[in-house]
């Protein structure tokens, strides 16, 4: 090798890497390819979902889809972020939190290649977007967002919520707040800085220029604020144990079950009188983990769902790999596409670590899917007292998702293929409504959490007496 060949080779590799990175995030797709993806997406939704038109009529949906097709046809090529916006907005109209379009994989790739994000953390509610803080700590106090890079907060809020799939607004707000950095990337693209206009708590209008930040800095600040936090945690305050579980994901099943078991071993050793199970940031996962947790707090016969309605589309049959000959006969020969499975109550296995004192399950807008199902079960069976705010996820809902990659844009599509009826056997179109309603800020202050929960319980008991 001649002197300098290695340097030339390295420069070529770096240059090629830069070109590939630019190509990924400036990716353009032809109109015909986008149209193909749109038709694929809509057909899968109709084929797989048990009742895709449950809130959005077929006539309205067909009109919306025709408008989407016409709009796509107005350009010769489309960028990936714009495709996501169009598709996500269309899918969100169907009001099912488990049926969605995702650009998460592409966003993660953007971050891994050094992409930067908006440096502020926010909270959505009915009235406004509130700035909580920024990564560098230049904002001294929370304030009301007025505009971001010249886009009014009202327009920004509307645009983001249009892309979020949700049934209840509270869950939409929680989702938009958590993924604000992703949605800002979708809307603004990569920015060197953001002009933030906001109203202080004293009513002063201020404007500040904040540089975009690396995701590692953003994530570190978010964890410091406890906006994502640990997946699970356990602590004891006096005679009250606090078990925080932020996921029921099957990916963590072994470790999570070990954590639950070890926590109840500690509870038994410490002679605990009150147990608070905090599910306010639990977006769901596997109902089996909820069943496992239930076996430590109740010995009452149980069922997570009274009924499960399954749509056996061709895609579902391939995914489920059905071996039951009777079920296959009903699906393939009798052409019964939707079959209702009714569940009996099951006995709880004997558990030497059973806790039979006061159990409070803490829920809120971020409690979704299997976590909301667990809360509904313990409420319906009176196995625990549910405390907090109405869950973001419905107590009876569509769920269990079949996932697809759109042929050309490579965006991910998820579609529900089951409908779950809560343990109590009814659907009131609501989230799980707490037995004791109280708002508790999500912070690291476990002492304050315990005091607030126990005080709310005491006040409720006093009012009844």
How would you describe what is shown here?
By secondary structure, the protein is α+β, with helices and mostly antiparallel strands. Among the domains are: 112-224, PDZ domain (Pdz3 Domain), CATH 2.30.42; 232-304 and 343-393 and 435-464, 2-enoyl-CoA Hydratase, Chain A, domain 1 (Alpha-Beta Complex). It contains 15 helices and 21 strands. The protein has helices spanning 5-25, 31-48, 58-72, 80-92, 104-112, 153-162, 169-178, 180-188, 215-224, 253-270, 287-294, 314-320, 325-333, 370-380, 446-464; strands spanning 28-30, 77-79, 100-102, 116-117, 120-124, 129-134, 143-148, 151-152, 193-199, 205-211, 213-214, 232-237, 240-245, 274-278, 305-311, 338-342, 358-363, 385-388, 397-405, 412-422, 436-437. Helix 14 links the parallel strand 17 (358-363) and strand 18. It is globular. Residues 1-25 have low confidence and may be disordered. This is Peptidase S41. InterPro entries: ClpP/crotonase-like_dom_sf, Tail-specific_protease. It comes from Pseudothermotoga lettingae (strain ATCC BAA-301 / DSM 14385 / NBRC 107922 / TMO) (Thermotoga lettingae). The chain crosses the membrane at residues 12-30.
């Amino acid at each position: 090798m001649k002197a300098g060949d290695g340097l030339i080779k390295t420069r070529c590799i770096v240059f090629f890497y830069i070109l590939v990175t630019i190509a990924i995030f400036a990716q353009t797709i032809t109109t015909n390819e986008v149209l193909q993806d749109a038709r694929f997406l809509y057909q899968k939704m109709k084929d797989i979902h048990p009742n895709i038109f449950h809130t959005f009529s077929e006539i309205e949906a067909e009109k919306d889809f025709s408008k989407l097709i016409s709009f796509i046809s107005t350009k010769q090529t489309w960028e990936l972020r714009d495709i996501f916006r169009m598709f996500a907005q269309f899918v969100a109209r169907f009001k099912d939190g488990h049926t969605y379009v995702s650009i998460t994989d592409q966003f993660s790739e953007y971050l891994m290649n050094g992409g930067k994000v908006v440096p502020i953390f926010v909270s959505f509610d009915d009235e406004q977007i509130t700035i909580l803080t920024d990564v560098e700590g230049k904002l001294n106090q929370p304030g009301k967002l007025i505009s971001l890079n010249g886009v009014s907060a009202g327009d920004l809020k509307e645009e983001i919520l249009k892309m979020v799939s949700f049934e209840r607004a509270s869950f939409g707000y929680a989702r938009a707040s958590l993924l604000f950095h992703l949605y800002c990337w979708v809307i603004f693209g990569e920015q060197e800085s953001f002009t933030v206009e906001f109203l202080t708590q004293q009513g002063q209008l201020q404007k500040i220029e904040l540089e975009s930040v690396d995701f590692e800095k953003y994530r570190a600040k978010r964890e410091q604020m406890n906006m994502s936090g640990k997946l699970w945690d356990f602590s004891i305050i006096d005679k009250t144990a606090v078990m925080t579980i932020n996921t029921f994901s099957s990916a963590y099943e072994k470790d999570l079950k070990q954590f639950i078991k070890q926590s109840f071993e500690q509870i038994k050793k410490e002679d605990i009188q009150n147990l608070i199970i905090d599910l306010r940031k639990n977006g769901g996962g596997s109902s089996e983990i909820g069943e496992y947790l239930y076996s430590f707090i109740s010995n009452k016969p149980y069922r997570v769902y009274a009924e499960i309605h399954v749509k056996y589309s061709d895609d579902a049959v391939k995914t489920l790999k059905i071996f039951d000959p009777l079920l296959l006969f009903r699906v393939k020969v009798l052409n019964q596409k939707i079959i209702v499975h009714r569940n009996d109550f099951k006995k709880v296995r004997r558990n030497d670590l059973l806790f039979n004192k006061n159990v409070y399950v803490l829920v809120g807008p971020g409690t979704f899917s299997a976590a909301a199902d667990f809360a509904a079960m313990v409420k319906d069976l009176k196995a625990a007292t549910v405390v907090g705010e109405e869950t973001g996820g419905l107590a009876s809902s569509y769920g269990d998702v079949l996932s697809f990659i759109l042929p050309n844009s490579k965006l991910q599509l998820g579609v529900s293929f089951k409908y779950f009826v809560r343990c109590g056997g009814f659907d009131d179109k609501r989230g799980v409504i707490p037995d004791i309603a109280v708002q508790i800020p999500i912070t690291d202050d476990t002492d304050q959490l315990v005091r607030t929960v126990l005080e709310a319980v005491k006040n409720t008991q006093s009012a009844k007496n």
